[in-house]
């Protein structure tokens, strides 16, 4: 079966996903697209695909079996709710939504629909290095995780896109999600510290040091930078009771010349996570073709939104901001069961 997909938002990542869905992956066909700028959508789609005037018309079209949302965050809620109302599987780029109330509305609608339809674009969970790291932690040979050090550095951000909230709303969500996933834990509190301003751009508050307090008592520190200048640099190291497990450096050609011995650094997320995005969509296509979703869920989108909100409060208060989640609905136990099949059950410490 070939899955007929419509894409909402044909900007930077929308076009990259269209390339992957048309040129890299099989079992899928782009049949429709829409964008605020109709010309941008027309230029992005393959021959024969229909360009719709509105997301709603695309979602309701009989031609479209599943939807990929790549519009900007504040538009996601309305588009997600329309996909759920139409009973169609939907892949939604992060952030799933931009407020706790919106996340709860998505969760309620999905529960009312009776099955999982939403996958959120947390692509790190599909990266082979993160998957090996999770398998080591779950394997338990290093004991319980105590700390996770996450480094998330972006070279720069286009001036028009930067707001003081952007690193916490748009960027931290990846680290929040991967911390919960790697440690099989929930975030219960957030603190944020800011160093002196960088002369790279004195208007920005960047970088941020974020501390995530996990339910088990483990602590995560995250260095978030959207202005590091030298490239896209993602690192991760988990300190456990009996040892440390870290993401490896990405294999890259070693260049020796008059400047020394060095390896290239990825320019941006498209390069660093290219295989992860491919795998993310491979698994999404398989689930969507079966009429459901199995990857990062609306629950994970909700958790990331709460973390971003708490981080913003923590900047203002300078203290620890607590997170309280609703009880996890049964519908969202499915990804945990699948993860245990793939990576082994989460390691639990006797007596804890
Ligand atoms: P972008 O280049 O600005 O593209 C977004 C596109 O969607 C633009 O063409 C925009 O039109 C259009 N759009 C916005 N609201 C719309 C609506 N209501 N209906 C139809 N089209 C709409 O942004 P991007 O970098 O591609 O990011 C898109 C989303 O992906 C964001 O949520 C972002 O956080 C996420 N993202 C995820 C990753 C990842 O690693 N997973 C990486 C990058 C981006 P206008 O420009 O006219 O507003």
Question: Which cofactors or ions or other ligands sit in this model?
Answer: NADP nicotinamide-adenine-dinucleotide phosphate
Q: Please give the CATH architecture of the largest domain.
A: 3-Layer(aba) Sandwich
Radius of gyration: 20 Å
Side-by-side strand order of the widest sheet? 12-11-7-10-9-8-15
- CATH topology name of the largest domain, in short, is Rossmann fold
β-strand number? 15
Function: Involved in the oxidation of myo-inositol (MI) to 2-keto-myo-inositol (2KMI or 2-inosose).
GO molecular function: inositol 2-dehydrogenase (NAD+) activity; nucleotide binding
Keywords: NAD, Oxidoreductase
Protein name: Inositol 2-dehydrogenase
Give a quick set of tags describing it:
15 strands; EC 1.1.1.18; 2 domains; 352 residues; Rossmann fold; NAD; alpha/beta; Dihydrodipicolinate Reductase, domain 2; binds NADP nicotinamide-adenine-dinucleotide phosphate; oxidoreductase; NAD(P)-bd_dom_sf; 7-stranded mixed beta sheet; inositol 2-dehydrogenase (NAD+) activity
């Amino acid at each position: 079966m070939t899955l007929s997909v419509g894409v909402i938002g044909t900007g930077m990542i929308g076009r990259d996903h269209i390339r992957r869905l048309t040129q890299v992956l099989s079992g899928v066909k782009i049949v429709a697209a829409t964008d605020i700028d109709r010309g941008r959508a027309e230029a992005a789609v393959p021959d024969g695909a229909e360009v719709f005037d509105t997301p709603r018309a695309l979602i309701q079209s009989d031609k479209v079996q599943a939807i990929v949302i790549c519009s900007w965050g504040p538009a996601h809620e309305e588009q997600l709710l329309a996909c759920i109302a139409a009973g169609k599987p939907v892949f939604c780029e992060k952030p799933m939504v931009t407020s706790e109330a919106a996340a709860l509305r998505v969760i309620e609608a999905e529960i009312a629909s009776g099955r999982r339809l939403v996958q959120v674009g947390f692509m790190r969970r599909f990266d082979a290095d993160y998957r090996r790291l999770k398998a080591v932690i779950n394997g338990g040979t290093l004991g319980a995780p105590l700390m996770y050090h996450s480094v998330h550095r972006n070279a720069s951000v286009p001036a028009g896109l930067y707001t003081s909230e952007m690193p916490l709303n748009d960027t931290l969500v990846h680290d929040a999600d991967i911390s919960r996933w790697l440690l099989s834990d929930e975030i219960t509190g957030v603190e944020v510290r800011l160093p002196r301003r960088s002369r790279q751009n004195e208007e920005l508050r960047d970088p941020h040091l974020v501390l995530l307090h996990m339910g088990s008592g483990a602590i995560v520190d995250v260095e978030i930078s959207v202005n590091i200048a030298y490239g896209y640099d993602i690192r991760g190291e988990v300190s456990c009771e009996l040892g440390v497990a870290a993401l490896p450096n990405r294999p890259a050609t070693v260049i020796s010349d008059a400047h020394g011995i060095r390896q290239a650094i990825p320019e941006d997320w498209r390069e660093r996570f290219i295989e992860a995005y491919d795998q993310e969509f491979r698994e999404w296509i398989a689930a969507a073709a079966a009429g459901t979703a199995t990857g990062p869920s609306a629950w994970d989108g909700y958790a990331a939104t709460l973390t971003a909100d708490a981080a913003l409060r923590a900047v203002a208060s300078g203290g620890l901001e607590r997170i309280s989640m609703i009880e996890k609905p049964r519908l969202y136990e499915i990804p945990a069961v699948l993860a245990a099949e793939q990576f082994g059950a989460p390691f639990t410490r006797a007596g804890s």
